[in-house]
Amino acid sequence: MKILILCALYQEAAPLIRKLELKKADGRHGIDIYIKDDVMLGIIGTGPVRAAAGTAVLLERIGSDSQILISYGSSAFLREFQPDSASSYTGVLFQLNKITNADSDRTFYPDMIWNTGLPEAEGFTGSRIMYSTDPGMQNMPGSARTASERPSETGTADVRADTQRAAVRQNSPILYDMESAAIYQAGAMFLRPDQMMFLRFVSDDGSGEKVTPKLLEELSTGCAGEAAQIVRGLEENFSRKEHQSSILCNEPGTSHGSKFDKTKPPAESEQLQQTCGDFNGQECRASLRDDDSPQDELRHLVSDLHCSKTMELELQQYLRYAQLAGIDWRSVVDSFYRTGDLPSADRVHGKTILRRIEESILR
Q1: HSE-up of 339 (CA within 13 Å, CB side)?
Q2: Residues 126-148: pLDDT tens digits?
Q3: Is it the case that residue 287 has pLDDT exceeding 60?
Q4: Residue 114 has what DSSP assignment?
Q5: Mean pLDDT over each residue of the chain, to the nearest integer
Q6: What is the C-alpha to C-alpha distance for residues 217 and 214, in angstroms, rounded to an integer?
Q7: Taking 60 as the threshold, does the pLDDT of residue 268 lie above it?
Q8: pLDDT at residue 1 in the model
Q9: Less crowded by CB within 10 Å, the N or C end of the chain?
Q10: Number of alpha carbons in the 13 Å side-chain half-sphere of residue 311
């Protein structure tokens, strides 16, 4: 299976199952599965625990054939974060460009390299149903309150983070669900960030009004056509490029003008593939050099941070995001060489520097 679609509830999935003409197959561990050709849809249940477990089970079943994971489902529009009326967003399908785990405040950035044509939104994931009237909303990471109105342990870092979050919110709605962050974290064990896509339609405003199964299916029906078009476009894209070794790399001369072609030109995509390859070198050095190839830069940095395999994969994710977002990650890394933090003395110190690199790039 090249495309795995995950839904929390049958009512969310049913319209998409019909649009894609999927057929019921043998399930696994209580997960209902629907299949046709290279597409598999699994209904994994609600909440972060079931979402993470279901994601892992299905990706393990598919194995290395999976080329992209699509998380499709409903979300609440958070009035607490924006004064807009949720009615203007109800039934609209969004693609999440940022996902924050509301319980841990960890933030993830799916690589937005597929041009779906959908409006973008920021997503929060929590472990329980969250209503905008709940007092707990005031204490969620990135709450609309300013940093000066709540206790801070990080001082200016809190102010900077709040300022950046506010800037993002001026341009896109803020949505809340219970699965996205868990799916991303479980999916990252098998896939790259560019292989995960999160599609959410707004079902309510978190005001406490009950969302019935009938309403949920009606709203999904209105968005299933767009979602199905995206899936078919991806199928066509993968079929055209069946010989390519990485979906980050477009072979020169193979662009067919599809809206699902990568948004990055081939030269940059090839550089990204080279940058994010496998590195086995152990050489240490004092700083990055201008004449290093991207492969050499990663090899030296992995060595100087004393990276474990997990740390190496995290580092590749951050640098890939920086490359796609136009962030000068080399300047970030060189600053740690100038202060003497790199090369790190050991892996413990390397983990600390990796977290600081993450903060510098993602926040």
Answers
A1: 10
A2: 887 765 555 444 445 444 333 33
A3: no
A4: B
A5: 75
A6: 5
A7: no
A8: 61
A9: C
A10: 21
**Residue predicted with more confidence, 316 or 168:** 316
Residue 44 CA, chain-centre distance (Å), reads 18
Whole-angstrom distance, CA of residue 254 vs CA of residue 333:
35
Please report the pLDDT score of residue 325 as a whole number: 75
**Co-location of 230 and 322 in the same domain:** no
Q: What is the pLDDT of residue 359?
A: 84
Residue 247 neighbours by CB under 8 Å, 6+ apart = 67, 68, 194, 195, 238, 241, 262
Locate 133 and state its tokens: 């009237």
- The boundaries of the domain holding residue 301 are 276-362
The pTM of the full predicted model, rounded to 2 decimals, is: 0.61
Tokens found for residue 126: 């929590």
Residue 32 lies in a domain: yes
SS3 207: coil
320 and 209 within one domain: no
Decide: helix, strand or coil at residue 323. helix
Residues 149, 153, 158, 159: is their CA dihedral positive or negative? positive
Cα dihedral 141/144/145/151 (nearest 10): 10
C-alpha to C-alpha distance for 139 and 175, rounded to whole angstroms: 16
Q: Note whether residue 25 is domain-resident.
A: yes
pLDDT band at 89 (very low <50, low <70, confident <90, very high): confident
* Domain assignment present for 269: no
CA Rg value for the chain: 21
The count of domains in the chain is 2
Helix residue spans in the chain (DSSP H): 10-20, 48-62, 156-169, 180-187, 213-240, 266-275, 294-304, 309-325, 329-338, 347-362
187: pLDDT strictly greater than 90 = yes
Calpha distance 170→144 (Å, rounded): 12
Beta bridge partners of 122: 98, 174
Q: What phi, psi does 355 have (nearest 5°)?
A: -65, -35
